[in-house]
Specification:
Structural class: alpha/beta
Order of helices and strands: EEHEHEEHEEHHEHEHHHH
Radius of gyration: 18 Å
Largest sheet: 6 strands, mixed
Number of helices: 10
């Protein structure tokens, strides 16, 4: 297992840590593979009752590492997709603790956590529209399921930053604490959950998720199709070019 994803089992709580703080925990191909294997293994491991997903450093994750996104091992599906599937299919409680920036795929993964705790510095951004792209990880469904259609539409359409106060008020997060207390608070809650029988927790999660899963599956299919249409489109190329040239993009002339 790569040292870019750290794991530690504490009394039934598997702590999974994104460990690339010098890159704001941007997730590269190696990390997607490790995340997939970690969640698949945790689902099958009897000693794991609950997973706590967190990150090293001051930021949760700046999202997909674009420098490695074109690297598809052995061809075929990018491990980004199978990692998303492993998180979606994870059938035990998933708690997340996030502070600092959570962007793109580093934000949409949080929508699949059963409970999200955030620090005061938490900031979330879904930049898909500004990149000429579309959402992923089933987030086009999960965000509106979590916070309502209008609030989700505003966040997606504007690609604006959502701070900790707004994340808590809207329902993206369950609780907000000072950054220095975040990990201990989230671990205490995960430990409280992990005292109960894992099969009971599995059944409860199945009941909570059963009505959502068909919609999540449909959203993932549509998102993948939309991403194929938009990746490399004039809008996407303009967004990337503007970023490289350090200027605002101009989509009106396309």
């Amino acid at each position: 297992m790569t040292n870019l994803i750290l794991t530690e089992n504490r009394d039934g709580v598997l702590i999974v840590t994104l460990n690339r703080p010098e890159k704001k925990n941007a997730i590269n191909t190696e990390m997607w593979i490790a995340l997939r294997e970690t969640f698949t293994g945790a689902a099958a491991e009897p000693d794991v009752v609950c997973v706590l997903l967190c990150a090293a450093g001051d930021n949760f994750s700046s999202g997909v590492d674009l420098a490695s996104f074109g690297d598809v091992p052995n061809g075929g599906e990018h491990p980004f997709e199978s990692a998303a599937r492993a998180v979606v299919d994870f059938d035990k409680p998933l708690v997340a603790a996030a502070r600092g920036a959570s962007i793109g795929g580093g934000a949409t993964v949080l929508f699949h956590a059963d409970i999200v705790y955030i620090g005061d510095s938490f900031r979330l951004r879904l930049p898909f529209a500004s990149l000429g792209l579309v959402p992923e990880w089933g987030s086009s469904y999960m965000l509106q399921a979590n916070i309502g259609a209008q609030r989700a539409a505003e966040i997606f359409y504007t690609a604006e930053w959502v701070d900790a106060a707004r994340a808590l008020e809207s329902g993206i997060a369950a609780h907000r604490v000072p950054d220095g207390e975040l990990f201990d608070h989230a671990l205490a809650k995960a430990t409280e959950i992990a005292q109960w029988p894992v099969n009971s927790l599995r059944e409860i999660k199945r009941m909570l998720r059963m009505s959502h899963l068909p919609a999540i599956d449909a959203a993932i299919v549509e998102e993948q199709a939309g991403m194929k249409r938009q990746a490399g489109s004039p809008e996407n190329i303009e967004a990337i070019t503007a970023f490289m040239e350090k200027r605002p993009p101009n989509f009106r002339n396309l």
